[in-house]
Amino acid sequence: MQKSDTRILVTHVGSLPRGERLTDLLIEDELGHGVDRSTLTEEIERRVAYVMQKQHAAGIDIANDGEQGR
User: Fold this and answer.
1) Residue ranges covered by each domain of the chain
2) Reported pTM
3) pLDDT level of residue 1 (50, 70, 90 thresholds)
4) Are 51 and 14 in contact (CB under 8 A)?
5) pLDDT category, 37, cuts 50, 70, 90?
6) Which residues contact residue 68 at a Cβ distance below 8 angstroms, ignoring those fewer than 6 apart?
7) N or C: which end of the chain has fewer CB within 10 A?
8) Could you tell me how many helices (H) and strands (E) the chain has, helices first?
9) Whole-number mean pLDDT of the chain?
10) CB 35 within 8 A of CB 21
């Protein structure tokens, strides 16, 4: 766990917005429409990298995946 003796570290809780492609893939998967698992995994990984970068750019000390795969 990260800690600081000089300031309160910033994080957030909850889901961050998903991109349209990931949203579509998750819906299709939920409906049982045979989404390719590797395509879904790659898109989740791409979106996690994106939201992590955005959190760091915003000054978030303790970033997370923003529940991109949910």
Assistant:
1) 1-70
2) 0.85
3) confident
4) no
5) very high
6) 16, 18, 22, 44, 47, 48, 51
7) N
8) 2, 0
9) 94
10) no
